[in-house]
Amino acid sequence: MPSVDTAPRFPADEAARVAREVFAVEGGFGELPSERDQNFLLRTTDGRELVLKIANPRELRDRLAFQNEVMALLAADAGGPLAPRPLPAKDGALISTVPGRGGEPHFVRLVEYLPGRPLGEVRPHTPRLLMDLGAFAARLVRALSALPQREYQPDLIWNLKNGRRVVRENAPLVVDPGRRATLDAVFRRVEERAALFEGLPEGLVHNDGNDYNVIVAPPDPAPGSFGDMRVAGFIDFGDMTRSWALSDLAVVLAYAMLDKGDPLGAAAHIVAGYNAVLPLSDKDLRALFPLACLRLCMSVSIAASQKKLDPGNAYLTISEEPAWRLLERLKDVAPAFAEGAFRRACGHAPFPAAEPVARWLEANRVSFAPVMGYPLDARAATVFDLGPASALFEREEHWTDMEALDRRLKAEVLRAGARAGIGRYNEARLIYTSPVFRPSGDPLAEGRTVHLGMDVFVPPGSDIFAPLDGTVHSFRDNAACLDYGPTVILEHAPAPGVRFHTLYGHLTRGSIAHLTPGQPVRKGERLAAVGARDENGGWPPHLHFQIIVEMLGRSGDFPGVAAGRDRDLWTALSPDPDLILGVPEGLLHDPALGPAEIAALRKEHLGRNLSVSYRSPLEIVRGSMRHLIDSTGRVFLDAVNNVPHVGHNHPRVVEAVRKQSAVLNTNTRYLHETIVRYARRLTALLPDPLRVCFFVNSGSEANDLALRLAAAYTGRRDIVVLDGAYHGNLSSLVAISPYKFNGPGGAGCPPATHVAPMPDPYRGLFRDDPRAGGKYAARVGAILDELAKTGRPPAAFIAEPVMSCAGQIVPPAGFLKEAFRLVREAGGISIADEVQVGFGRCGTRFWAFEAQDAAPDILTLGKPIGNGHPLGAVVTTPAIADAFAGGMEYFNTFGGNPVSCAAGLAVLDVIEEEGLQENARTTGALLADGLRSLMERHPLVGDVRGLGLFLGVELVLDRATREPAPLHASYAVERMREEGVLLSTDGPDRNVIKIKPPLCFTAADADLLVGKLDRVLSETPLRT
Questions:
Q1: CA-to-CA distance for 764 and 749, rounded, in angstroms?
Q2: Rounded CA separation 228/210 (Å)
Q3: Which residues have a Cβ under 8 Å from the Cβ of 493 and sit 6 or more positions away?
Q4: Dihedral over Cα of 937, 940, 944, 949: its sign
């Protein structure tokens, strides 16, 4: 039998000689990982890629011949190749013999090389790739079943049929006590379910679909499917054996789950793909998870043995550390739960026992005793909204302050004149903030947020009664902070074939003091009492009531909160408690629309050209400082929305708006101090003579008004703009926005608009030129001269001091100052559009134009000015304002209303008092340095630029040619969204990742963003 201690040791030059003399091929050689034999990758001089396989001297020729036979069959599969094709030697033989260094004979073969990378070297393992892996494994099993059946390597150590014996023999070689305990725990569960393996169909199996024997084809480069990856085939048929046909899927699952944040979810995608090709039986689905666990137990125990034989062979332990990490996670996964996940993946009901339980509960729902001793109807109960969008949680600290929540809930009950407050079932919540609910190591990873029970908030000490007959299943004081506290679980078997449990959490300690397992409990009997905060886990006093179909081997405790991605799986396991509690449906009704309904109504009632971000749109329901939160309670780091300038839902701004809204909101035809106080504060931040304000509702209105001011002052209409610029969505602004009129659906440049080159230091006309600023300004001057010759001098030159939609372009030094000078010499006026970049965002200066040592004649403001409240402003000189006052009245109904100006004042207060301009400077510098460090590792990053917290990362296919990489940029943004960071793309070629977060962005946020972007840029589609 071949073993690792007799593996061949041919040097590369000797292998090259074998390839040349035996197979008549030459080229470059590189050794591939292997265990009992030796493999070399050969890139031939004519461009082919082949694999030279040198067998272990103890290998049998007949076995290699059978492998060749199988590979030839699989390579010719009607659905496409499943494996590489064996190639003949010069003499036509598929197997040849060469002497080893000690004279012993070795069989050698040549096979095609499957282009791509091993699954273990590919990132990410997307659901689509995993489903394809499952489908590929099913095709492999189906093809192997077509071969004549015969006994083949039944004694192979890796045969799953031998697995339990192998683990028993080798487990003692695991010397680390913690690891041995983990192995024993998982293996014990396998042994408990070994009877499930009996009678499974058998056949020839590949048996080694580990993550280095599955080859993934190069990523799809096409625009519509960029980055998608598919399986190219399986390699290494040396471990083929006759075993359970399910072995191949079990082995694939075992290795594909390695180092996954959600290993069971990854496995379920593979199962779904497999089942679509070869439907899995109920027996298969029960046995599959224990078989995958058995393979992992075999892997670590055999590794312990092999390390003693060949301690220097890294390939032998290449999967050992990830396998140990996975076993540590799987030891707490109940096989019944895994079976449910796999059943769901195949389109079946996850837990078959749930249906008869639900039917019985529905049929008997009017017969249950009141759990609180009285009906929870409209006279007795009020229903709380504890979801992510609830008004009960106005600030982030409200999610964690249980004492304050207790007060608010009591006040709500009192206001409603009720005895109890109800917390809904299947509701996503933000209050589950302790580490027990959140994955460690990543603050943006999806945690457990979905409530699986129903809450009844009542005074501490309130009695709780058994709703139906049962026995005490278990009880425990789960005393950790924000755990259940004292908990009782009852078991009920009210009818043949109907068995379920009910859980009562957050009780008094006295509730469990006199209970014994198996103790009978009668319907209507007092069972327990609601605990106070100091004994119930720290929560506002309430009963958590939950129905459980399958206990999953647990005792005294059961998950009461699930991750959103597994919502339907856990709600199948814990059906609606209202089947017993009997709260009227009208009280429980949640009027909120779901994402699918919102999308459908949006499509029906909103314009089709109103786009949404990301391929899988987010339903965002709450903002909190640097974060946005979706309807499942998942928290995202917002690195792209610069409108909430000082932070989403900043309490100072919210309070200012609330207070003023409660008093007055009207137009500016009346005297009101707020507008003049704000105008005075705003103009005090600007250089003379910018002293006159006009208030509007948005940046677009501000820019439109600026054009009117320019026309009134100069008597002209022509406007000079920069290529790539965007100034707003009004018709007048689309006409001066090359980003729009030269883009999709645009009508081209209007006659009165004149476009100067974009002052782009990276890829513009004067790239990398130290005198670029003056040269770009001269191009503006040339347009001004040409207009003068035609008798149409311009009214104005409008520019963003840092261009946004153009790709976060910071003009070269001196450009803006010189361009403004030239336009004034031509009799026009200069307009600085700071709708995106004002109010301290650039860090070193409060206004972006100051960073260019320039000063405009008109300044336009919007977006961040009111932190999301509809507010915009135009600030200009008295002379220009006077010229505009000579004609018709200017009136804007809501521009400058008291509420908006209160928001504007609060924004200025927060910027000053919280040092947000300085934070933009320091955090922006840290973030920019981190992003620039990515250039050392990722050639895709061509340029990092920006000021403060207004940054751009330009992706290019080639740094020399600077060819844009828009597909790569889009891929990166989509993946960052999946990682919990919100970004976007911009620029004429959509290849610039734009970063413009709220100014409360922290150094930790910057590190988190850079770290995640580093990992995304390292993924296979962006490295190919």
A1: 20
A2: 21
A3: 499
A4: negative
